[in-house]
Amino acid sequence: MKEEQPKNLILNHHYETYRTIARCCGGHHGQGPAYEWALAPPGNAYPNFLFNEQAENIDLETLQQQIAAKELPPFWISPDPKLEDIIGPAGFRLIRIWEGMAVRPEELAPPPAVPGLECHKVDSPEYLDAWTEIVASAFNTPFEKGYFYPLLEQPEVELFLGRKDGEFVATAMNFYRDGSVGLHHLATRPTHRKQGIGQWMMCRSIRAAFDSGARVAVCSATPDGSSPWKKIGFKVYSKLYLYWLVGYI
Fold first, then answer.
1. Residue 3 clears pLDDT 70, i.e. is over it
2. pTM of the model
3. Half-sphere exposure of 34 (CA within 13 A, CB side)
4. Is residue 4 predicted with pLDDT exceeding 90?
5. N or C terminus of the chain with fewer C-beta within 10 Å?
6. What are the structural domains, with CATH classification, of the chain?
7. What is the rounded CA–CA span in Å between residue 153 and residue 128?
8. What is the DSSP letter of 220?
9. Which segments within the chain are labelled E, that is strand?
């Protein structure tokens, strides 16, 4: 079977992660003729995206009405830099660009030395509470306690905590799909940044995936935030564009 190209792999990993988390964590995943959507339950801010659009089928009036009724999220992620030409008249604006990146086992650099740092697999609600608190703090994103508990039962999801000097300080998520792994929710406490902890966690989680049989790892980051990824071997293959309907949260 022909291997999926990195550009498509990056995009499809995003989409499948949104679908999975929305379905298993109490949110909603839906699909119509114009787009798919993942909507988190009240009190949680991820995943909340429109995606996988068929641009010719978009009805702006219906879209605006459904977002106003909170039936759809006000954020749209797309590989299309010209989507704003279509959805801009409804009030959407481009707010962020992510670089889609990939690395193969032979390209992965060794992690930086971080004395005292340990990696723990998240296998209990207590560990997951610590994981969630770090992610929420690092990304300024609210999550209710227990929101991610169903992920402990998902075989395609693997969660990690980094602990240094007895304190949990960093997180990572592996999402497995068809011989590949997507890296998500790489987060470090603000008090422990610029110590190489994030890169170390990246390498450990990716190496765990490669040891489990993954043939390629993918991720995305803003251009300003992609340097740590590139230092351990990731290469840029695509861009993703995040649009927001102004005035909605």
1. no
2. 0.92
3. 15
4. no
5. N
6. 6-98+241-245 (no CATH), 103-238 (3.40.630.30)
7. 12
8. E
9. 28-31, 36-39, 49-51, 75-78, 92-103, 117-121, 157-164, 167-177, 180-188, 216-221, 235-245
